[in-house]
């Protein structure tokens, strides 16, 4: 595979093609679980390298947790430095609007949803703007983090092994000096 696209460069047909290949290819996570850190906005984050069948790291799973809503994390598949797919756990009462150009998708989405490459690819190519605005509800009953990770792994052709299924999405707040949970 070729190098991933630069984060702020104009999107090219070649970039789109490389992302298509990356998503279609079998992938796995690196063996060591990542640690957590606090971002400047106060959210907790963790990044786990994604490795292709040749052992080359071309992307990562990027985990984000808002400490105010620890039961509702998001996970992005990042290729190079660009998010190409994201799943968000959200309360069923949270309603999000889809953009008017997202034909074939519901105008609103409630609760858990995914910003898939397939729903955003043509828009990214047409506009050259890298944004994943279109979303769809996660089709089956994903209600907890382990279910979300398994569902997302299937969605992006990522193989999980052993303890990766039980990756802890709620970092220990003591690591961040925030006291007991």
Would you give an account of this structure?
- The chain is an alpha+beta fold and 181 residues long.
- It has one domain (13-165).
- It has helices at residues 13-24, 117-127, 145-155, and strands at residues 27-29, 37-38, 44-52, 57-65, 74-79, 82-88, 95-97, 108-110, 113-115, 136-137, 158-159.
- Strands 1, 2, 3, 4, 5, 6, 9, 10 and 11 form a nine-stranded mixed beta sheet that branches. Strands 7-8 form a two-stranded antiparallel ribbon.
- Strand 4 and strand 5 form a beta hairpin.
- The longest helix has 12 residues, at 13-24.
Write the layout of secondary structure elements.
Elements lengths: L12 H12 L2 E3 L7 E2 L5 E9 L4 E9 L8 E6 L2 E7 L6 E3 L10 E3 L2 E3 L1 H11 L8 E2 L7 H11 L2 E2 L22
In short:
By secondary structure, this protein is α+β, with helices and mostly antiparallel strands. It has 3 helices and 11 strands, in the order αβββββββββαβαβ. It is 19% helix and 27% strand.
Count of DSSP H/I helices:
3
The total number of structural domains is 1
How much of the sequence is in beta strands? Answer: 25-35%
Low-confidence stretches: none
Q: Could you tell me the number of beta strands?
A: 11
Arithmetic mean pLDDT:
86
Quickly list its features:
181 residues; alpha+beta; nine-stranded mixed sheet; two-stranded antiparallel sheet; 19% helix
């Amino acid at each position: 595979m070729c190098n991933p696209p630069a984060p702020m460069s104009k999107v090219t047909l070649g970039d789109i093609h490389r992302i298509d290949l990356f998503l279609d290819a079998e992938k796995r996570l690196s063996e060591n679980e990542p640690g957590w850190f606090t971002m400047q906005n106060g959210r907790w984050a963790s990044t786990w390298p994604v490795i292709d069948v040749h052992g080359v790291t071309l992307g990562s799973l990027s985990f984000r947790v808002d400490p105010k809503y620890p039961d509702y994390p998001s996970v992005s598949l990042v290729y190079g430095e660009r998010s190409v797919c994201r799943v968000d756990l959200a309360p069923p009462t949270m309603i999000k609007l889809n953009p008017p150009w997202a034909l074939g998708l519901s105008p609103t989405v409630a609760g858990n949803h995914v910003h898939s490459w397939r729903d955003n690819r043509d828009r990214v190519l047409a506009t050259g703007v890298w944004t994943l605005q279109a979303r769809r509800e996660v089709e089956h009953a994903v209600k907890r983090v382990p279910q979300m990770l398994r569902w997302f792994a299937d969605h992006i052709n990522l193989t999980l092994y052993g303890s990766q299924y039980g990756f802890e999405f709620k970092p220990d707040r003591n690591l961040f000096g925030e006291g007991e949970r």
